[in-house]
Design brief:
Elements lengths: L15 E5 L8 E5 L7 H4 L18 H10 L8 H12 L7 H24 L5 H12 L5 E2 L1 H8 L3 H13 L3 E6 L2 E9 L1 H21 L5 H19 L2
Antiparallel strand pairs: 1-2, 3-5, 4-5
Length: 240
């Protein structure tokens, strides 16, 4: 008599879950596929059940990756810290729509990275961020690189008292100077000194190198598209 051949055993009425590709560019479909009953291990004398191989091994979903897909909404594991944060909030507060986090949390985290990079670039030239902001506003004005204190307030978004203090400190360092306004005897203008002009030009060139590195892995088309999207969002705030 020929010996009985071992048959892979599958628990009765337990379907496999198969993910198949949807229409072009569409989401993957998850559908149960019924598995025929097979002889039990007792009937075959083999106590080691083995799962039947899948035609597409990567498409067989386990309870673990089904949960991950449901949490991240991506069909794969989290790609960054924001994915993990969003997944945790979706799990803890399924009653809330947390999708804004996927955009604005990334903007917030990028702002922190950029702030650190900017501080480093300015520090290499003996400047703090606020000092660069004032000097850069004057530099962008064009020759003779001077503005009224009111114009500096508008461009740097600080109070009048804060701006007066900042002009005083920059003047002490020899980077700006106050000059009488040719149009108003009682008015004054703030102007870059030659030392201030050199300092801001050098710091700006360094800043561009740093920022170019931050987005260097993005194709040019993606950078332009990202700039357009961020402009659309920021315009809503600038208009208020």
């Amino acid at each position: 008599m020929l010996p009985a051949r071992a048959v892979p055993w599958t628990a009765p009425d337990t379907p496999h879950i198969i993910a198949t590709s949807g229409p072009a560019g569409g989401p993957r479909r998850i559908s149960p596929v019924a598995t025929p009953r097979a002889a039990s291990p007792q009937a075959t004398g083999d106590a080691r059940g083995a799962a039947a191989p899948s035609a597409h091994p990567g498409d067989v979903l386990t309870s673990t990756n089904v949960s991950t897909m449901a949490e991240t909404g991506t069909g794969g594991p989290p790609r960054d810290e924001v994915d993990r944060i969003v997944a945790a909030w979706q799990r803890e507060r399924p009653d809330l729509d947390v999708r804004p986090l996927t955009v604005l949390s990334r903007v917030s985290r990028l702002a922190r990275h950029l702030d650190l990079a900017r501080r480093g670039a300015f520090a290499r030239h003996g400047l703090e961020t606020w000092e660069f902001d004032v000097l850069a506003a004057l530099r962008r004005a064009g020759e003779p690189y001077r503005l009224s204190p009111g114009a500096l307030l508008t461009q740097t978004l600080v109070t009048s008292g804060t701006m007066t203090n900042r002009i005083d400190r920059l003047a002490e360092h020899g980077l700006v100077e106050r000059r009488p306004s040719p149009d108003d005897r009682r008015g004054v203008l703030v102007q870059l000194t030659p030392a201030g002009l050199r300092r801001v030009d050098e710091a700006f060139a360094d800043l561009l190198d740093v920022e170019r590195h931050l987005v260097g892995d993005l194709p040019e088309a993606d950078r332009e598209r990202l700039a357009e999207l961020l402009r659309d969002v920021l315009t809503l705030f600038d208009a208020t």
